[in-house]
Amino acid sequence: QALLYIVATPIGNLADMVPRAIEVLQCADLVAAEDTRHSQRLFSHFDIDTPLMAYHDHSDDRRTGQILQKLEQGQTVALISDAGTPLISDPGYRLVREARGRGIRVVPIPGACAFVAALSAAGLPSDRFSFEGFLPAKSGAREKALQGLASDDRTLVFYEAPHRVADTLDAMAAVFGGDREAVIAREISKAFETVHLAPLEELAAWVRADRNQQRGEIVLLVRGADRRPSAELDGEAQRVMKLLMAELP
Ligand code: SAM
């Protein structure tokens, strides 16, 4: 039976590679990878010599077609990205969609994912959250996107490029308010791993004051808008409740 494996790979520390991922990559007939040169390093480390083929979401239909054809011939294909879980701000959606449409079994091999790791260590509410991926690069579009999230009461999670992080934190402080709590989670599982929580205005100043905080790979998390109804609203709700209760038989 044709099988398409979606395989998570480490986000920094190679020791985070799960044994099942190594086994699947060793046994597959073909591995579709975002950047074959990058993945070659992972392959050498784990003694994997399965043929690699480049695959991006903007790969032409011919490339997607070639992979689907191999699957339809009964071959086992594994998809990986440069780091972490494929399809999470990474290529793969088109391939998974097309494969499932053709009745091909798609099997995930769970492993590292930067935003899940960041959320697990941030100290912000994690019962409900919204993963927003990368914000638009241009400041106007970024501010508009932030405004659309200002009253969301879930923890907001973003990926951000190091050269934009200071400007993004300033923009967040301006739109969400400087006293809203936020976290920068940087270089997770690597030598300079940092997880720092502070109100947005302080966090922006802290990052601006230290160029090292503007390097490497970064997840930003922002506490959602206050969930507690204001005391005023509480009073009003109580008054309405009393009126309604009085009407009940
Ligand atoms: N698919 C990946 C995943 O599962 O997390 C994400 C790929 S996305 C193209 C790359 C972004 O993920 C980086 O710009 C950064 O925001 C975040 N990221 C990846 N590795 C990270 C790490 N070790 N520490 C913090 N953030 C990381």
UniProtKB/TrEMBL annotation:
ATP-grasp domain span: 40-249
EC category name: transferase
Catalytic activity: cytidine(1402) in 16S rRNA + S-adenosyl-L-methionine = 2'-O-methylcytidine(1402) in 16S rRNA + S-adenosyl-L-homocysteine + H(+)
PROSITE patterns: ATP_GRASP, RSMI
Cellular localisation: Cytoplasm
Superkingdom classification of source: Bacteria
GO molecular-function terms, A-Z: methyltransferase activity
Residue stretches spanning the membrane: none
Record GO biological process: methylation
Enzyme Commission code(s) on record: 2.1.1.198
Keyword Methyltransferase: yes
Pfam families from the UniProt entry: RsmI_C, TP_methylase
Annotated keywords: ATP-binding, Cytoplasm, Methyltransferase, Nucleotide-binding, rRNA processing, S-adenosyl-L-methionine, Transferase
Primary localization: cytoplasm
Function: Catalyzes the 2'-O-methylation of the ribose of cytidine 1402 (C1402) in 16S rRNA.
Similarity comment: Belongs to the methyltransferase superfamily. RsmI family.
The protein's name in its UniProt record: Ribosomal RNA small subunit methyltransferase I
Gene: rsmI
